[in-house]
């Protein structure tokens, strides 16, 4: 793509994207450690309050790939503005709400912000010099994980010194500024996918995602063998089959099944699923573990919401540092090598926590190692997908990768909740310590599978045509696609 003099410098564009992605990442996790506070202030029950997460999750899962695809067709800058407006509106509504029903509606609107990530990846690929794409994609991908960690850290101080409404006011201010800045400084997307949107495929994609995530989210409370959960799983299978059939027969598919079969894409998506299990489950249950009152439960650290966030600080810092370095590491060693290294590093903290999680230093060490592994893996994983697909499919491919991470997080959190709930009784309202041990062993198994899956990702090698062409962006991309298709 030839850049013109009136197009903003790519670093200006990147700063705007970082602001929008950061606000979305904060909203993913900020309410997790303060759910008890929200239950009290909104006069609701635990089961109803969980819909603050479930509603957000369902909305994001549907919006992420669809908005990414629409952006590929009508323009990523336009869709980014629309997505940021939805985030701003949802945050404003949540900040104004004093009832659980209105706040759940606001969280569903916020979930539309899931489209920020694939749109940002697409804009980076369109606007950045070829040699800068890996680093920018890696930093942006790492920011989603870093933002989640920062959200856990900030939640306590915000609710203690301000008001729980500021959990939404602060991201609203960020997304409001990002919306205006996008209009002013993010150039119109030069890469478009011709044709119409397949709304039938979009409906079927939405149907199976909602059915699957609703089943895994509510399985612990409804019962995994209940008619509702089994019916939702059955509906998921039916809707997936219909969706694939429609996509295969469509001349203009919403999600190209040929693209999804590219070895680099499907293996990276498998790794994303397993990493979603590890990251989101840890962010959900590690704060819960350290907040457990030791005198009543016989384990735990009796930490406040603010103190529990500090246990996540090493993970957040490590993710940020490694995320910003991953681009240079990938350029030198290859994205696959960096992902493999991150995958194997991530196994270690889960083993440490499974063996013993009764001392403070063990949690800090595990948090640091987990941040290193996630920082390496998340950034390189996203770069692999972006590099493997044609430019016009960047949005939908990266959107599906992000969505699959979300599905992994929902599945992991649901399984973890079921394991912990099995030890809760009327006389002992806290999970058994052995339940946390079982959760960490489950995450260890998921980490090992992720490491094995990362080894399956094909390596893209420099070909004579790439060298002769001086690594031009178009020729380099053609060779990457060819290498990915050939496995």
TrEMBL record:
Residue span(s) of domain Major facilitator superfamily (MFS) profile: 13-462
Region: Disordered, residue numbers: 467-487
Gene Ontology CC: plasma membrane
Keyword Translocase: no
Places the protein is found: Cell membrane
Pfam families named among the record's database cross-references: MFS_1
Protein name according to UniProt: Drug resistance transporter, EmrB/QacA subfamily
GO molecular function, one term: transmembrane transporter activity
InterPro entries: MFS, MFS_dom, MFS_trans_sf, Sugar_transporter_CS
Assigned keywords, A-Z: Antibiotic resistance, Membrane, Transmembrane, Transmembrane helix, Transport
Classification via SUPFAM superfamilies: MFS general substrate transporter
Taxonomic superkingdom: Bacteria
GO BP terms in the entry: response to antibiotic
Membrane topology listed for this record: Multi-pass membrane protein
Predominant subcellular localization, coarse grouping: membrane
Transmembrane segments: 12-36, 48-67, 79-96, 102-124, 136-158, 164-185, 197-216, 222-246, 266-289, 309-325, 337-355, 361-386, 407-427, 439-457
